[in-house]
């Protein structure tokens, strides 16, 4: 039985990494262009040339760049990317960046609301940093951001263990008992969130709900990841009698060191996020069935 669980866990890890890779490569250069005025690109950047006018510009897995003098009459939205308004660029409606930033150059104007959802909070800790071409500088910035995330997560995890220890223990037990299901729920939840964000992004009614969706997903991923962190600590200290707090801190140390590995660290932490997301969803569903 233990061997089956390990094999299942390996397959889910492979599947999770594959989904991450596919989401950034396989959908590249897929466009939906309606009358040259409503542009949606999956897995790539949307660039509005100078002085051109379009109604909507949306990028799923890329940046939206509105070049000098260009105009978007309705909305500009980037999911897992940045929205960049160059000099004298204009958006009459709303501007949102989900997992990125809204960057405006001097003279650029935004007529409606603007904001970010999960800024620099993509799946995994190693997001992009614009304007830093040096690998060393990027690595230092990414590492600093990673350590800040770890510090915040550690504080939250310690508080939960002091206040409601059974919550994280239940999540760790879910990952331990149902590794395959946790991974599949995480992958399914990730795809569901992507589809939901796309549906909201192309709907004027749904755009105001994007920040709320981002907040709910962020909280879910954070809590789930803390449960996986405790599970990692339990596995690492299985031969020693340690308290849940000690096991959690050991898990934090392990994932912190893994996260400092360039590229691979980001992929591993993305998988941890997915497992945590799935474990929390699975635990909530199982809990609801028992009520």
What report would you give on this structure?
This is DUF8173 domain-containing protein. Residues 148-287 form the DUF8173 domain. The protein is α/β, with parallel strands linked by helices and 291 residues long. It folds into two domains: 2-25 and 123-290, no CATH class; 35-117, no CATH class. 55% of the residues lie in helices and 18% in strands. It contains seven helices and twelve strands. It has helices at residues 2-25, 135-163, 165-177, 179-201, 210-236, 244-259, 264-290; strands at residues 30-34, 38-42, 46-48, 53-60, 64-66, 71-79, 83-85, 90-91, 95-98, 102-104, 109-110, 114-117. The strands form two sheets. Strands 1, 2, 4, 6, 8, 9, 11 and 12 form an eight-stranded mixed β-sheet that branches. Strands 3-5-7-10 form a four-stranded parallel β-sheet, with no helix packed on it. Strand 1 (30-34) and strand 2 form a beta hairpin. Helix 1 crosses helix 7, helix 2 (135-163) packs across helix 3 (165-177) and helix 3 crosses helix 7. The longest helix is centred in the middle third of the chain and has 29 residues, at 135-163. It is elongated and about 65 Å long. The chain starts with a helix and ends with a helix. Residues 7-30 and 120-129 have low confidence and may be disordered.
């Amino acid at each position: 039985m233990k061997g089956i669980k390990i094999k299942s866990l390996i397959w889910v890890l492979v599947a999770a990494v594959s989904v991450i890779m596919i989401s950034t490569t396989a959908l590249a250069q897929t466009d939906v262009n309606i009358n040259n005025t409503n542009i949606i690109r999956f897995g790539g950047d949307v660039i509005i040339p100078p002085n051109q006018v379009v109604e909507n510009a949306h990028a799923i897995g890329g940046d939206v760049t509105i070049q000098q003098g260009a105009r978007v009459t309705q909305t500009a939205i980037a999911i897992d990317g940045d929205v960049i308004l160059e000099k004298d660029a204009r958006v009459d409606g709303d501007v949102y960046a989900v997992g990125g930033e809204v960057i405006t150059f001097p003279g650029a104007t935004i007529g409606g609301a603007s904001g970010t959802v999960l800024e620099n909070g993509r799946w995994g800790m190693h997001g992009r940093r614009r304007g830093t071409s040096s690998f060393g500088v990027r690595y230092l910035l990414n590492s600093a951001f990673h350590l800040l995330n770890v510090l915040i997560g550690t504080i939250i995890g310690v508080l939960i263990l002091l206040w409601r220890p059974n919550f994280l223990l239940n999540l760790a037990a879910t990952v331990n008992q149902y590794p395959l299901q946790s991974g599949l729920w995480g992958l399914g939840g990730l795809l569901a969130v992507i589809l939901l964000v796309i549906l909201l992004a192309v709907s004027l009614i749904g755009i105001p709900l994007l920040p709320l969706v981002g907040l709910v997903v962020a909280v879910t991923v954070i809590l789930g990841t803390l449960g996986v962190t405790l599970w990692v600590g339990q596995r690492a200290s299985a031969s020693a009698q340690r308290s849940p707090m000690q096991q959690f801190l050991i898990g934090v140390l392990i994932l912190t060191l893994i996260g400092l590995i360039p590229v691979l660290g980001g992929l591993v932490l993305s998988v941890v996020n997915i497992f945590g997301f799935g474990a929390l969803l699975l635990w909530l569903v199982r809990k609801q069935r028992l009520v």
